[in-house]
Specification:
Blueprint (H helix, E strand, L loop, with lengths): L4 E6 L13 H18 L4 H6 L2 E12 L8 E10 L4 E9 L6 E13 L4 E2 L3 H8 L9
Antiparallel strand pairs: 1-3, 2-5, 3-4, 4-5, 5-6
Length: 141
Amino acid sequence: MADLFTVRVTVRGYETDAQGHLNGNVYLQHAEHARWELLRAAGIEQKALLAKGVGPVNLESTIRYHREVVVGDDVDITCAFIFGEGKSFRVEQTFHRPDDNTLVAEVFNVGGLLDLKVRKLVADPREYFRAVASDPGVFGL
């Protein structure tokens, strides 16, 4: 797990639900933040993708909850993009407590790159990411 890209967040009070747990929608926001941070670490900026006429889209997200997360908890979020041969790709993310590495949640995402003119997914998203990345190794390309 040490070789996976990781972002740390601290849970804030306004991110919790009535039970004091991190709100489910906020898990998705933190997961998206980690995905963008991975892209940024690889040198892939949103403006560069837009200049190529593409933008990332979320096709599906699934959250698996394992443990409670409450105000003040630090959470490390891993992020790994997995490319196949098709138009979409998967992103697998885990949320762990940094002190004891307890798995608190997992987020599984299916995404793609949308051609902004024809409004369809591009055939090979890897090529677009690789074309704009200054450090494609961070991204696994």
